[in-house]
Write a structure and sequence with these properties.
heterodimer; A: mainly alpha; Four Helix Bundle (Hemerythrin (Met), subunit A); elongated; B: two-stranded antiparallel sheet; 1% strand; globular; Cyt_c_oxase-like_su1_sf (chain B); transmembrane helix (chain B); electron transport (chain B); hydrogen ion transport (chain B)
Chain lengths: 201, 658
């Protein structure tokens, strides 16, 4: 609803439809929290059922995981910078920081896929044990979300270049930033409850 | 993995061959009919691409009627098979498939679309909104639901139906014990339909929170809107659990993982927990909107404000909360231990408290009211005693120690039919008779409605009351036959006769739709029941933009008080402003098609074909991302013309009651 633009608000909140979309996305993130919580619960139940296969300390390579973590956490920061410059109406810096965000995300994905391939070569596949089934599906769901986010972001960059900063493109930018930060939060839980706890336990 | 390709087209059984022929003939008849009457363009423009919440609601309801028919036939087949001892009408495998599809279809593809359909039609009107918050997403919700429903329904002619019960417990539902593809249909069709439901939940939360008419605070909302809001919250909280459970089932069945298997560390009880963590809230997802419908109907036809409005709201919120912490009562006997069972016994019994509050509120609403015995009201009246039987037997089942006696018997089956049929089906019928004129501009015939009502209610009781006693005598559920020596035969026969009466009742309903469509008077008023809420303020059928001017709400039962003040039909034409409306879109329908195709390939474990089809899904998302269509405006002149047509004829119309 393009009518009733309220210029006193941040760009992404200026139209009623934008406010509806942003609230709707927050509620969607609520559903995503339930989804990941369920996957964590499944991992909590099955995570120690090795069925004679490898255990976390047998296979996890904490160095790689630390790099993944740094890449993703940094990307969340740069994503915040991108939104900051969006509010400043600085299209150039917005794009620069947003593209850096995506490169960091792609780096994370590269490392994660490499990690998975390494596990599979060690004979730790998702068919090996309940632990590995729940590990790969939890991590894979997160990784699939990151992949989806990158494709979505590329679509958005094209639109930003085509249309500039309008309430509509700003809303899309803001929503994808919420999504990106959410994935980062999920990763913190994965790092803590899957990797660190796996190495300690 | 282990698919017998030569057995894909299920044949041989005369029942199945008959239905295959019937399906082909129906499809041919629809295609020929649409072409002959040149209706393809109309179908595409008016229905397949619509984003209008009222039309989407009607499509949901139509799907609900169709699925009721399918699920009902399943029920009749089961009743025919068990009418006499040691019958050979259905074999054990066929019986397994039929009780599975009966359960899934009745809950997910009958009750859900009926209620979501009514929510779609009514809620935006009740809150004075132009549409839902995300009209195109709403269309996508419907089409994904429809896609999932169709995928599930073709299973019985292509590849075989799922046969592990609607709960699909592992290890039975796993690849080891169910090697066919039937259970793949379960995992994938329900996943697609569930995505649609989740989006509906998000859509309605935002709509109700943000799009209410000025002055309508939360505590001035009609009760049906309240129940829709709480239901939507439960949907968002519970459906992702089902999404995960079904995804893990798919991984187990298609990719050999070990979530629910017996070997390699899997846990079959994990499935039972995940399933009921969603499944129990799901029961309340279908019952709460039904409570809302009864609240509207009882208040309208008692000519009184709903008694104890605040306690009603507190009760539904309480029920929603409790619905999340009772799931273990579905498997007391599956090794949970006394402490856990006690906890879940208490929480389960606690649900009787807010539900009892609601029952008393309905009774007090009727007290000293001037009750009108319309068909809609009859359903509400019959609901109270029948539902109480369901509720009281529920409390019996809630006692974990006693449950060891009743569980897995027909007592349980009778209990949940006594909850779900009076609770949901009666409500849907009440809602349909009540809101039908709002949807279509004519009423359903009241006389036929009363035949429908009496046949259905009597048939229902004759069918399910004997099952309580059968269960107490020890007749187990899901058994395809029983011996003559068991002594079960007379009650089973009574039950089978009841199911025929029930079916005749439903047939009268279908005939009523046909009769009313052909012959009912078209000059009904916009407010034929002398009702209380905003949806009755605008034309019947409702014009596409809903309200010429958004009404201002001052109190509960806003429309009733406006009528008292005599300000309902006065519309100052100077107040009319142009109205913004969303454009139609073919994308939701396209998404349903590609989701359906992808799902179909996944069912048959054709992974490469499924991956190729999934590219279609990504293309759909990309197209949506680049879609900046911002809708269009309805001009003031067009609104004035439309409003004059129905406001002028107002004097010549009939109020049905009062």
């Amino acid at each position: 609803m393009s009518a009733n633009v309220n210029h006193s608000l941040p760009l992404e909140y200026q139209t009623e439809q934008n406010r509806l979309n942003i609230l709707g996305f927050w509620i969607f993130l609520g559903a995503e929290i339930v989804l990941f919580a369920t996957l964590f619960a499944v991992y909590g139940v099955l995570g120690h059922r090795y069925a004679g296969g490898p255990t976390p300390s047998d296979i996890f390579k904490l160095n790689d995981v630390l790099i993944e973590t740094l890449l993703l956490l940094t990307s969340s920061f740069t994503c915040g910078l991108a939104v900051f410059f969006m509010r400043q109406r600085d299209m150039k810096k917005l794009l620069i920081w947003f593209i850096i965000t995506l490169l960091l995300g792609a780096g994370f994905l590269f490392m994660e896929i490499r990690e998975f391939i390494h596990y599979v070569h060690e004979g730790a596949t998702m068919q090996t044990s309940a632990f590995l089934s729940s590990f790969f599906v939890l991590l894979g769901t997160h990784g699939a979300h990151v992949t989806f986010g990158i494709i979505w972001a590329i679509m958005l960059i094209i639109q930003l270049l085509q249309r500039g900063l309008t309430p509509m493109t700003a809303r899309k930018m803001f929503i994808i930033s919420l999504y990106w930060h959410f994935l980062d939060v999920v990763w913190i839980f994965i790092f803590t409850f899957v990797y660190l706890k796996g190495m300690v336990g | 993995m282990g698919i017998k390709w030569n057995e894909i087209f299920v044949g041989g059984d005369p029942l199945l061959v008959g239905s295959q022929i019937a399906i082909v003939l129906t499809v041919v008849a629809i295609v020929v009919g649409l072409t002959y009457f040149k209706k393809w363009g109309w179908l595409w423009r008016e229905w397949l691409t619509t984003v209008d919440h009222k039309k989407i609601g009607i499509m949901y309801i139509l799907s609900g009627v169709l699925m009721f028919f399918r699920g009902g036939i399943d029920g009749l087949l089961m009743k025919a098979q068990t009418a006499r001892p040691e019958m050979n009408f259905l074999d054990a495998q066929h019986y397994n498939e039929i009780f599975t599809t009966h359960g899934v279809i009745m809950i997910l593809f009958m009750a859900m679309p009926f209620l979501i359909g009514l929510m779609n039609v009514v809620v935006p009107l009740q809150i004075g909104a132009r549409d839902v918050a995300f009209p195109q997403l709403n269309a996508l919700s419907f089409w994904l639901f429809f896609s999932g429903a169709m995928l599930f329904n073709i299973s019985f002619v292509v590849g075989g139906s799922p046969d592990a019960g609607w709960t699909s417990y592992f290890p039975l539902a796993g690849k080891e014990f169910s090697p066919g593809i039937g259970n793949n249909y379960y995992a994938i069709a329900l996943q697609i339909a569930g995505l649609g439901t989740l989006m509906t939940g998000i859509n309605f939360i935002v709509t109700i929170l943000k799009m209410r008419a000025p002055g309508m605070t939360l505590m001035k909302m009609p009760m049906f809107t309240w129940t829709t809001l709480i239901t939507s919250i439960i949907i968002v909280a519970a459906f992702p659990i089902f999404t995960v459970a079904l995804a893990l089932m798919t991984f187990d069945r298609l990719y050999g993982t070990h979530f629910f298997t017996l070997s390699s560390g899997g846990s079959d009880m994990l499935w039972a927990n995940l399933f009921w963590l969603w499944g129990h809230p799901e029961v309340y997802i279908v019952i709460l909107p039904a409570f809302g419908i009864f609240s509207e109907v009882i208040a309208t036809f008692s000519r009184k404000t709903l008694f104890g409005y605040t306690s009603m709201v507190v009760s539904i919120v309480g029920i929603a909360f409790l619905s999340m912490i009772v799931w273990v009562h579905h498997f007391y006997t599956m090794d949970a231990g006394p402490a856990v069972n006690s906890f879940f016994s208490i929480t389960t019994m606690l649900i009787a408290v807010p539900t009892g509050v609601k029952i008393f509120n309905w009774l007090f609403t009727m007290r000293k009211g001037r009750i009108q015995f319309t068909t809609a009201m009859l359903w509400a009246l019959a609901f109270v005693p029948n539902f109480v039987i369901g509720g009281v037997t529920g409390v019996m089942l809630a006692m974990a120690a006693a449950d060891y006696q009743y569980h897995n018997t027909l007592f349980l089956v009778a209990h949940f039919h006594y909850v779900l049929i009076p609770g949901v089906v009666f409500a849907v019928f009440a809602g349909l008779y009540y809101w039908w004129p709002k949807m279509f501009g004519f009423m359903l015939n009241e006389k036929l409605g009363k035949y429908h009502f009496w046949l259905f209610v009597i048939g229902f009781n004759v069918t399910f009351m004997p099952m309580f006693f059968l269960g107490l005598k020890g007749a187990v559920r899901r058994a395809y036959t029983y011996s003559a020596e068991s002594g079960f035969a007379p009650l089973f026969l009574v039950s089978a006769i009841g199911s025929i009466i029930l079916a005749i009742g439903f047939a009268v309903f279908c005939y009523n739709i046909y009769w009313s469509f052909r012959y009912a008077k078209r000059n009904v008023s916009h407010d034929p029941w002398d009702a209380r809420t905003l949806e009755w303020m605008t034309a019947s059928p409702v014009q596409f933009y809903n309200f010429a001017v958004v009404p201002e709400v001052k109190q509960l039962d806003a429309f009733w008080h406006m009528k008292k003040r005599g300000e309902t039909l006065t519309l100052k034409e100077s107040d009319i402003k142009k109205i913004h409306m969303p454009s139609n879109s073919g994308l939701p329908f396209y998404m349903a098609v590609v989701f359906g195709i992808t799902g179909f390939f996944l069912v048959f474990e054709a992974h490469i074909a499924a991956a190729v089809a999934a590219i279609g899904i990504v293309i759909g998302l990309v197209i949506r991302s680049f879609d900046y269509n911002d809708g269009y405006y309805v001009s003031v002149d067009e609104i004035k013309r439309t409003e004059r047509t129905w406001r002028n004829v107002e004097g010549g119309t009939e109020n049905h009651v009062g």
